[in-house]
Write a structure and sequence with these properties.
Helices cover 54% and strands 1% of the residues. By secondary structure, the chain is mainly alpha-helical. Helix 4 crosses helix 8. The radius of gyration is 27 Å and the shape is globular.
Length: 349
């Protein structure tokens, strides 16, 4: 059976010294050998001290999403690819050198999946360098007849302190005794209690911090997603702004009021429409301020600055629609389909 054919001698010779590398074609050819696959993965993967990681990817996924709708970042991509038009050149902001600098680091995002972009560009410039923190077994305490020498426990603890704990940036940890004879669900419940009791915000690594960091220590990912939802709804719906805000569910209060009116067969009052219109207009302005700040390496913030390109000046809605940009974001493509198939559209006039 060829599946169990011994690995060729020329491939395994000297493999323990980790000096022998084969071409990618050969690597694919010998994937059926688990031992060799582990060796190849070990060789090709970056060492622990060179890897970059983050405690939560969602904020960076949102950063990526806002980059994709930034007019300035789109100009930088066209400028670097040599496809920028004379009309677009007239839109270049005064601080374009900053945008180009960010683009050189983070690269193109149009048409890319976040996972691909994160591996190729994002993690290198946004992640911490070092070993990623993880739950680790330090020692086992056995019964009386097999009692562990305390010196061995201390040696294991010392190895952890000077090894993985140091490499992961000396994150706050809790040392617990877990009786293995207990019911598993009871153990999980009690561990959860102590975890919540001693939990702190993860400490950044004190060495080699990332080039691009988040503006806030705690991110409101839900609000940022709500702004993106408003944007993609506006790209789809060209009806009055109040209806865009309603369909996006941008304001929980006024969405409920308007829905109750529509469900009763009535149109919302002029006051309800006006208030939703104001909130929607402000929300769309913030969307592009967040995107324009993101293109300059600042995220998340909607602080205004004179160089920011507005949606009106850039015609970004037409660009996003013509390029079918929503297709690269599965969650917004699904939202678009549900909106098109839903009943609320037929209620608005």
């Amino acid at each position: 059976d060829k599946r169990f054919e011994p690995a060729p001698e020329e491939l395994t010779k000297g493999i323990s010294e980790r000096y022998y590398l084969v071409g990618m074609a050969d690597r694919k050819r010998y994937l059926s050998y688990p031992m060799l696959q582990r060796v190849f993965d070990d060789i090709l993967a970056p060492p622990a001290h060179a890897r970059r990681w983050v405690t939560e990817k969602r904020p960076y996924e949102l950063w990526f999403s806002f980059l994709a709708v930034s007019p300035s970042y789109a100009l930088a991509e066209r400028f670097r690819s040599g496809t920028i038009t004379e009309k677009e050149k007239a839109q270049i902001p005064e601080d374009f050198d900053i945008v180009l600098s960010v683009f050189e680091d983070l690269g193109p995002v149009r048409g890319m999946a976040f996972s691909d972009w994160w591996l190729r560009r994002g993690s290198e410039h946004m992640g911490f360098r070092g070993k990623e923190p993880h739950v680790e077994l330090i020692a086992r305490l056995e019964s009386d007849e097999h009692r562990k020498d305390p010196r061995q426990v201390f040696a294991s603890l010392n190895s952890f302190l000077w090894g993985n704990w140091s490499a992961a940036g000396e994150q706050d940890c809790i040392l617990l005794a877990l009786p293995t004879g207990m019911n598993k669900s009871d153990v999980i419940q009690q561990v959860s209690y102590y975890f919540d009791l001693g939990r702190h915000v993860s400490k950044p690594l004190v060495f080699e911090p990332p080039k691009y960091t988040l503006c806030r220590s705690r991110q409101d990912n839900e609000s940022l997603s709500r702004y993106l939802k408003l944007l993609w709804t506006r790209c789809l719906i060209k009806k009055p702004l109040w209806s865009v805000g309603y369909l996006a569910g941008f304001s929980e209060t006024y969405t409920k009021l308007i829905r109750s009116q529509l469900d009763a067969g009535h149109q919302p009052s002029a006051d309800e429409k006006n208030r939703m219109k104001i909130l929607t207009s402000r929300g769309l302005q913030r969307v592009f301020l967040i995107a324009e700040n993101a293109a300059r390496g600042r995220f998340p913030t909607y602080d205004a600055f004179p160089e920011a390109i507005s949606a009106k000046d850039s015609g970004i809605y037409d660009v996003l629609n013509s390029e079918r940009r929503w297709e690269q974001f599965p969650e917004w493509a699904a939202w678009r389909e549900s909106l098109l198939a839903g009943a609320p559209l037929s209620q608005i006039r």
